[in-house]
Amino acid sequence: MTTTAPPGTAVTDEFRAAMAGLAAGVCVITTTGTDGSPSGLTVSTGFSVSVTPPVFGLCVDVRSRTLPAVLERGAFVANVLHGGAQDVATLFASRATDKFARTPHRFTPGGLPWLAEHSLRSVECRIVQTADAGDHVIILGAVDAVHAPAVAGGSALAYVDRRFHALPRS
C-alpha cells in the first residue's frame, strides 16, 4: 500500500529539501497553442529516456498555463539552456504574459519556437505518452530533430540549492 504525505507535512518538507540538493539541467519548453501563439515554461526535469529510439522526457506542474498548449499541440521544443541564460530561465519560470516579446526566438521547420541564442542544443519532440504523477504530468516525446545554435559551446545551466549555476563543460 502506498501512502501520500499531504503538503506541509514533515515528509513533504524533508523531500523538498532533499530534492533541492539534487542538481538538474535547465530547459525552457516551448510550443505553440492552437491559435499559433507561442507558449513556454522553465523545467529542471528534462531527461533522456532512450537513445534508440531517441525519447526525451519532462515533468510539468498540472497548474502550468503552458501545459494545455503542450498537450493540445502534441509537440514541443526542449531548449537546453547555456550558463548565460539565467535571465531567460527566470522569465519563463514566471507568470509573465510577454515572454516571447522579451526573448529572441525563431521557429523550427516544424513551426515551434526555438530559443537558439540561449540554448546549447534544442530537442524537437512529438508527444508519444503522458502519465499523471501527483501534482505533475510526465510527458514523453519522440525526438524528431535536434537543433544547434550558430555558436556552439559554453557552459551548461544547472539548478541546485534553489539557485542557478553555470557549469563548465569539459
TrEMBL record:
Where in the numbering of this chain does the Flavin reductase like domain appear?
A: 19-166
Q: What is its EC number?
A: 1.5.1.42
Q: Which GO terms fall under molecular function for this chain's record?
A: FMN binding; FMN reductase (NADH) activity; riboflavin reductase (NADPH) activity
What SMART domains does its record include?
Flavin_Reduct
Q: Which keywords does the record carry?
A: Oxidoreductase
What Pfam families does this protein's entry cite? Flavin_Reduct (PF01613)
Family matches, as Gene3D superfamilies: Electron Transport, Fmn-binding Protein, Chain A
Write down the PANTHER family for this protein, in alphabetical order: FLAVIN REDUCTASE, FMN REDUCTASE (NADH) RUTF
Q: What is this protein called?
A: FMN reductase (NADH) RutF
